[in-house]
Amino acid sequence: MEAILREILGKLTSIESHFLQFQQEVRERFAQIDERFQQIDERFAQIDERFAQIDERFKQIDERFAQIDERFKQVDERFKQVDERFAQIDKRFAQIDERFANMESRLDALEQEMKETNERISRLEEEMCDVKKRLEHVETQLSDVKETVQRLEIQLADDVRTLLQNIYKKIDEKGFEIYALNKRLLRVEASIEQLQSQV
Asked: Dihedral sign, CA of 50, 51, 54, 55?
């Protein structure tokens, strides 16, 4: 009986020793698990911090996209203005095309007028040739008339000189007559004064 008890006591001692060893291993394992959980918690804290940074980054990205949307809105507005300007330009080009068409019509009319003017100039040149010939004929006649006038001038100068000489002679003769009349008039005035004084 005592041997059995000793055997049981030895087994209990062995079990207790194994239990203590197992308890120590369990404690070490739990310590390792706690350390691992602490590392996991730290890792999760880092992950949370990283997610916070990512959220902040996404917030910045959202703000950037909002700015981009605003810029696109401005770009759309600018494109709308550009489209309006192109519409105005197309309208202006249509007006320019119309004006070019009018100018072409006017140029055609001017070309026709120039053609008619060239024909008239050709006729005028022919007429100018005729006029030139007639002027040459007139110049010849004027030369003849000039010679005749020169002869007449010489002849008239002689006639005028003779006529002036006759006029000067008559003036001299009339001058003597006027002098005699003045003397007679003076005598008559003197006689009238004497008669007035006697009266």
From this structure: negative
Residue 142 — φ and ψ, nearest 5°? -65, -35
CA–chain centroid gap for 57, Å, is: 52
Q: What residue has token string 């202006």?
A: 92
Outline where the chain has alpha helix (H). Answer: 2-198
Full DSSP string of 54-112: HHHHHHHHHHHHHHHHHHHHHHHHHHHHHHHHHHHHHHHHHHHHHHHHHHHHHHHHHHH
Tell me: the pLDDT tens digits for 70-120? Answer: 988 998 898 899 889 889 988 998 998 898 888 888 888 888 888 888 888
* Rounded distance between C-alpha atoms, residue 13 and residue 145, angstroms: 179
Q: State the Cα torsion 67-72-73-76 to the nearest 10°.
A: 170
Q: Give CA–CA dist 51/53, Å, rounded.
A: 5
Q: How far is CA 37 from CA 22, 33, 48, in A?
A: 22, 6, 16
Euclidean distance between CA atoms 141 and 133, whole angstroms:
13
State how far the alpha carbon of 125 is from the alpha carbons of 113, 114, 120, 132, 136, in Å: 18, 16, 8, 10, 16
